[in-house]
Structure formats: structure tokens, C-alpha cells
């Protein structure tokens, strides 16, 4: 009870800040039931005067603190929940906060590594970047062969875990309140969204897991000659500290410097798109925070990515789904795009494939009337997800995260080459994967995996039958006792309800007598 009151107070504080900063302007009153429209009108009256037309949501979330900044960044990947306008506003949210003191960073590193910092590094700089969860320092260390090496050291912000844990509990409470006040919001799964954020943040707060993501990603791309990531240094990595190779390069948002350095910006734009699709479709593991600040071009012209705190995963079914719908739009095979949705189980079977294909044609045909460099692949996927909502397709968190990451990646690629043809660039990656996985070799591998699964089931059959037999025996033995227990509980509940009712009538009678006197 006390925790509910605390969460309610925190929820009211969040609502107050959102109202004061004008963030409620993004709420569509027409989509709300009458009782919530009243609260919306009251909230709009609390807005501060002189607010600008943009950046209202980022201002509110920044004022609420690092947990809500992270939540806003996460919601920027979910336009299906907050709407396209709000998602675009949230894209401006910068996860930049003042760095914490150098002395605390040094103490954290020393505690994590169990040695004085001077025994580990030749130098340890002031923070070069600071965010809500951690900050990054540049350090120099001596290699066993006597040479010196520059590395990046990421250090966890003190007290951040406790604050996030507290705020996540409040978010869980507010998600339950949203479902109670507006039951139709259950389709958007607000509680599942908060739990997804909680898992994501929990993984970000253990830098060993980020190092593991970095290591897995590096293993996936070891054959790629145009993309690289920094190697983690495991002996200098712990829960609160991550050491990795230092990346020398030019940020992708500095196009003049890239041109001046002699790099081919058109080729680099193609690499951005093709690399992302390879990671998503070929590997099923992609960098979900590929904004320009996390991407560099190194002196050899290779694309390099940093900050692997937010990653996305796709199963084989989702990868096939993505590849086939992209190829379907490229070939204008809208019926195949519709069939893929039904085969994946994303659209309920009671809907018509032909009707769904007709709706998809309404998305695909207009794009073929425009120049290739005017067609946004991410926009097509956004429209596709809007249409699928009409056919009762449930929200697929992993696909929405992929789509939103594609929006960012496409923006980065087009900032390098405004005339980039996304579809021609994507086609080789998509065709190669489909040919490999749906061709003869892929069919043989699928059959092999199915045979192994069947063999495992057959091998476990005797043990499973024995377990089932024991469970049935227990159920048979416990059924009479369980029935008696339930009957006793029902009688107790009935007595409790009777006495509660009599108590309430007694109180009412006493109040009435006092009033009469």
C-alpha cells in the first residue's frame, strides 16, 4: 500500500513536469475517452508561458532526469506507441549530462581493477564524453612488448543503478494505471514496453555485457573488409569499467572533413546501408543506436562503430520476414509480401490475403512513381506497420526497433550521399541472403536442423513419459485434498465477507444514530 502511494506521488510529479513543459501537446484528444479529455484539458492549462513549438518532450524528460531521458530515447524507437510526431521530437533528445568528478572515476576504476590507476595506465584523461549511464576517458597503457597503446575506458556513473531501479518501479506502476484508465491501450502493451526498457537498461548497466556484445559483433563481421569495431580488453573490463581499443577517425556527421580527407562519400553511404542490413539479416544481431555520433570513418576508409550498449536481435523467422518483404517491394510482388505476413503468423488467419495484398499495393505503387533517391525504405516500413495494425497485427518490438534504427541509418547514409538509391543498394544483400538460406543449401541445412530436433525429442521421449506418469499420479492423489482445501477456503471467504458486511452496516448504523442525536 505504501509503495503504491509513493509511486502515485512520483507519477503525479511526472505528470506535473510533462504538463508544465508542454509535452501534453502531442496527445491526440480525439483518441481519448471523455473522462481522460478532461484531465488533458486541465493539464494543458498548466503549461508555462513562452514555450517554443518544438523540443517540448525532450525538455520535460531532461528535467525528470537520466532514467526518463533513457526512456525517451527508447520511445523514439516506438512511433507505434507515441505517434510519429512525438517520436521525431524524441529523436532530438540528447543523452548528454555533466560528467561526474574525475576523482570518482579514478576510484571506480581502481576498485574494479583492484590496483592503483597509476599501476595500470600511463595516463588517464578527463572525460571525453558523458551520458546518463557512463562516461568515457582516454587512457594510455604499456603493452607487454614495451610499446604504448591508446585505449578508451568507459566508467559507470555512481548511484545510477539505484536511481534507475526506483524510476523503473514508478514506470511499471504508471503502465498499469494506463491500462486501467484506457483498456484499449493494452494492444500497445505498455507494461511490456516498460519491461523491455528495464531489460535493456539492466544490460547497459553491466559493462561486461556490453563487452560481450562487442566481442560477438566483432566475430560476426570478421570477414567484412569495410566495417570494424573496437576490440574489448577483457583483463581491464568489469561490471563498472569497460576498456576497449581507441578508434581514430572522423565522425560521420562531419561531411566536409570526410571529403577533405579524400574519402568517397557515396561509397561510404552505401557501406552504411549494406552493413546494417548484413548485420540484421545475415547475423540477426545489429547495432540499434547507429546515430552519427557513434559512427566514424577511419584513415583506411572503413566504417567504424562504437557504443554497443543498445543492440537488437532478430530470429531466423524475423530475418526471413524482413528480407522477403524488402525484396517483395523491390519486385512489386505485393501478394508475396502479404503471404509472408501470414506465413510468419503476424496477421491472424481470419483475414484475407488478397485484401491485405491490396492494402500493401497502396503503399508500394506510389513509391515506384518517384525517383529512386526520393524513396525512403524506412518510410515504406513505417507505412507497412501502420497498415498491419488495421489487420490486427500485434506489435513486434524487435521489428519496430529495427525499423526505427533503419530510419536513423538511412538518414546517416543520405547525409553522405543525398542521391543514394536505397533499394538498389539493399538488393544485393537481400538477394544473397535469400539465395543462401532459401536455396538448395539452405533447404538442406533446415532439414538437418529439423532432423536433429526430432532426434532430440525421440531420445527424450522415455524420460518425458516417466515424468508425465509421475505428474498424473500426483494429481490423482492430490485431487481429493485439493477439493477439500478449496471448499474450506470458500467457507472462510464467505464468513469473512459476511462479517465485513455486518461490520459496515454496524458502522453505518452508528453514524446514523450520532446524526440523529
Automatic annotation (TrEMBL):
TM region(s), chain numbering: 497-516
Transmembrane keyword on record: yes
UniProt KW keywords: ATP-binding, Cell inner membrane, Cell membrane, Kinase, Membrane, Nucleotide-binding, Transferase, Transmembrane, Transmembrane helix, Ubiquinone biosynthesis
Domain (Protein kinase) ranges: 122-498
CDD domains listed in its UniProt record: UbiB
Tagged with keyword Transferase: yes
Protein name stated in the entry: Protein kinase domain-containing protein
Amino acid at each position: 500500500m505504501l509503495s503504491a502511494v509513493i509511486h502515485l506521488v512520483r507519477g503525479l510529479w511526472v505528470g506535473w513536469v510533462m504538463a508544465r513543459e508542454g509535452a501534453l501537446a502531442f496527445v491526440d484528444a480525439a483518441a481519448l475517452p471523455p473522462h481522460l479529455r478532461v484531465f488533458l484539458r486541465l493539464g494543458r492549462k498548466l503549461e508555462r508561458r513562452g514555450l517554443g513549438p518544438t523540443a517540448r518532450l525532450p525538455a520535460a524528460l531532461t528535467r525528470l532526469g537520466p532514467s526518463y531521458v533513457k526512456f525517451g530515447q527508447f520511445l523514439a524507437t516506438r512511433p507505434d506507441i507515441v505517434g510519429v510526431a512525438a517520436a521525431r521530437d524524441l529523436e532530438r533528445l540528447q543523452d548528454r549530462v555533466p560528467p561526474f568528478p574525475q576523482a570518482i572515476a579514478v576510484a571506480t576504476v581502481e576498485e574494479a581493477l583492484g590496483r592503483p590507476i597509476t599501476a595500470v595506465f600511463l595516463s588517464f584523461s578527463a572525460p571525453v564524453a558523458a551520458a546518463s549511464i557512463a562516461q568515457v576517458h582516454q587512457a594510455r597503457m604499456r603493452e607487454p612488448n614495451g610499446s604504448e597503446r591508446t585505449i578508451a575506458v568507459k566508467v559507470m556513473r555512481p548511484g545510477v543503478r539505484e536511481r534507475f531501479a526506483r524510476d523503473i518501479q514508478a514506470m511499471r506502476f504508471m503502465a498499469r494505471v494506463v491500462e486501467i484508465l484506457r483498456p484499449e491501450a493494452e494492444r500497445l502493451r505498455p507494461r511490456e514496453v516498460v519491461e523491455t526498457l528495464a531489460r535493456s537498461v539492466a544490460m547497459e548497466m553491466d559493462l561486461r555485457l556490453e563487452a560481450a556484445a562487442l566481442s560477438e559483433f566483432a566475430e560476426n563481421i570478421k570477414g567484412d573488409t569495410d566495417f570494424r569495431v573496437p576490440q574489448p580488453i577483457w583483463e581491464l573490463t568489469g561490471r563498472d569499467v569497460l576498456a576497449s581499443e581507441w578508434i581514430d577517425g572522423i565522425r560521420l556527421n562531419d561531411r566536409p572533413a570526410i571529403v577533405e580527407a579524400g574519402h568517397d562519400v557515396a561509397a561510404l553511404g552505401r557501406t552504411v546501408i549494406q552493413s546494417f542490413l548484413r548485420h540484421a539479416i545475415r547475423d540477426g544481431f545489429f547495432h540499434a543506436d547507429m546515430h552519427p555520433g557513434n559512427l566514424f570513418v577511419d584513415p583506411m576508409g572503413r566504417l567504424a562503430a562504437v557504443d554497443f550498449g543498445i543492440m537488437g536481435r532478430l530470429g531466423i523467422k524475423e530475418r526471413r520476414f524482413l528480407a522477403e518483404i524488402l525484396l517483395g517491394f523491390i519486385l512489386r510482388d505485393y501478394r508475396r509480401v502479404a503471404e509472408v505476413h501470414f506465413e510468419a503468423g503476424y496477421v491472424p488467419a481470419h483475414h484475407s490475403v488478397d485484401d491485405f495484398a491490396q492494402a500493401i499495393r497502396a503503399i508500394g505503387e506510389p513509391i515506384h512513381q518517384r525517383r529512386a533517391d526520393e524513396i525512403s525504405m524506412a518510410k515504406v516500413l513505417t507505412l507497412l506497420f501502420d497498415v498491419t495494425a488495421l489487420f490486427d497485427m500485434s506489435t513486434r518490438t524487435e521489428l519496430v526497433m529495427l525499423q526505427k534504427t533503419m530510419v536513423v541509418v538511412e538518414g546517416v547514409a543520405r547525409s553522405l550521399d543525398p542521391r543514394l538509391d536505397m533499394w538498389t543498394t539493399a538488393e544485393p544483400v537481400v538477394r544473397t541472403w535469400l539465395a543462401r538460406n532459401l536455396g538448395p543449401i539452405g533447404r538442406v541445412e533446415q532439414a538437418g536442423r529439423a532432423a536433429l530436433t526430432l532426434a532430440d525429442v525421440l531420445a527424450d521421449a522415455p524420460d518425458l513419459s516417466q515424468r508425465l506418469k509421475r505428474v498424473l499420479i500426483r494429481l490423482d492423489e492430490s485431487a481429493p485434498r485439493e477439493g477439500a482445501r478449496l471448499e474450506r477456503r470458500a467457507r472462510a471467504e464467505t464468513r469473512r465477507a459476511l462479517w465485513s458486511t455486518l461490520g459496515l452496516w454496524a458502522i453505518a448504523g452508528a453514524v446514523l444514530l450520532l446524526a440523529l442525536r
